[in-house]
Amino acid sequence: MKNTELKGYIAILAVLLTLFTGYQFITHQLFYNQLKSDSITTWGEITARLVEQNPENEVEIMKVLTSHSTDSGHYQEKGREILRQYGLYEHLESELFPRLNNDIFHHNQSIYWGLVCFGSMLLLASYMQHKMIFNKIRQLTSAAKKIIDGDYSVVINENKEGDLAKLVVSFRSMKDIIRRSMHDLREEREFLVQMLQDISHQLKTPLSTISIYNEMMMNESLPRQQQVQLLQNNDVQISRMNILIQNLLKVAKIDASAISFEKGPANLVETIGDVLDRLESMISDHKISIDWDAPEEIVVVHDKIWMQEALLNLLKNAIEHSTPGGKIMIQIKNTPIYTDLVIQDFGEGIAEEEIPHIFDRFYKARGSKKHDSAGIGLALAKSIIEAHQALIKVESEKNAYTKFTITFIKF
Fold first, then answer.
1. Which pLDDT score, from 0 to 100, does residue 266 have?
2. Tens digits of per-residue pLDDT, 344-354?
């Protein structure tokens, strides 16, 4: 009985049944009253005639009429015999009893019209109930066709409770899921197209360079020293392509949620220290000083391996865009709610109009001194950090500094 449509229909039937029962009761009561009235009229006429002819029998006549006669059985049988002589007995058709026949006729008419009215109201209630249900079904069918055609603007409202309302809610949920799925599919298709275009563009230059160098090496008169130099150049281009492809695969896996991060409470100071150890030779080659007053322990929930990958890209970016002999500052601000990790260099900086694009794949700032960068490192770092439900923002001023701030939320 949780179905409100069914409860409403049963309530209508109960009301109609109550009305019909009341109507039947009133009709039968009127019929009985009419029978009493006609009986009194008939027996009153007979009593008046008998009393007029035999006044002394008035008391006996009234006893018979009120069923107080002592020997009524004898006179009842005798009366039946007299009536039979005139053709009146129990099995005669009611048409031979005019008053009774008239009362029965009117009573049957009342019952017939009552049944007609009740049946009509019942049919009307059923029609309206089923019309409402089938209208909703037709709306859902029409909406489903529009959704199949790609129109997700259809709106079906159902303010009542019950199975129809549940169906409408489920339909709306299904519409939203389909719309999101189609939107995700379009985005994935656009992403794939863009990714293929970017990969094609990024691989075109090193492949062309390798092809040119190979043609030059096919010249037999080329000195051995130049051949070695060309082979070394080819090795550099191949390494660049390998790094590019690996980073692209990492970004694609993160975007597709194909990587399961093993996140857990870990010391962020150790993670940063491991990254600095891996970059030690690069830091030394660029004569960069690291301003890093490391605390003993800052526990943050993260995947150490993947977070090292993100920090490695951020620090490599800072080193590559710093001036030789420059400084990189690393700071950690720890609070009960969040932990901020700041990586700041004091190199070439980024123009204000370019800051919104630096996390885009393959984006390289105009005038950047790093010409052989693929422009994928910062995009990878951002994807890893956001996969940890952390935030990253950048502040920069041209020819002054660039500061990356990673915020780890603790709740």
1. 94
2. 999 989 988 99
More confident residue, 220 or 307: 307
pLDDT-based confidence at residue 406 (cuts at 50, 70, 90): very high
Contact (Cβ atoms closer than 8 angstroms) between residue 397 and residue 341: no
> Is 6 within 8 Å of 134 (Cβ atoms)?
no
Q: Is residue 228 exposed (0-12), middle (13-18) or buried (19+ Cβ within 10 Å)?
A: exposed
8 Å CB contact between 406 and 391 = yes
pLDDT at 371: 45
Give the burial class of 338: count Cβ atoms within 10 A of its Cβ; 0-12 exposed, 13-18 middle, 19 or more buried: middle
Q: Which two tokens stand for residue 317?
A: 């970016």
pLDDT band for 39, please (50, 70, 90 cuts): confident
d(CA 385, CA 271): 14
In terms of C-beta distances under 8 Å and separation of at least 24 residues, what long-range contacts does 53-61 make, across chains too? none
Residue 5: pLDDT above 70?
no
Instruction: Tell me the angle at which helices 163-217 and 4-53 cross, rounded to the nearest 10 degrees.
Output: 160
Nearest to 327 by CA among 289, 365, 357: 289
Contact at 8 Å (CB) between 375 and 321? no
Q: How far apart are CA 399 and CA 397, in angstroms?
A: 6
Exposure letters 304-321 (e unless 16+ CB within 10 A, then b): bebbbbbbbbbbbbbbbb
What 3-state class would DSSP assign to 151? coil
Please give the Cα distance from 330 to 334 (Å, whole number).
13
Q: How far is CA 344 from CA 45, 53, 151, in A?
A: 124, 136, 49
Pairing between β-strand 289-292 and β-strand 327-334 as defined by DSSP bridges: parallel
Per the structure block, which two tokens stand in for 103? 């009362």
pLDDT tens digits, 52-96: 888 887 887 787 777 766 677 777 778 778 877 777 666 666 666
CB 118 within 8 A of CB 16: yes
Query: What integer pLDDT is reported at residue 158 of this predicted model?
Result: 65
State the DSSP code for 87.
T
| Cα–Cα distance list, 186 to 152, 178, 191 (Å) | 15, 12, 8
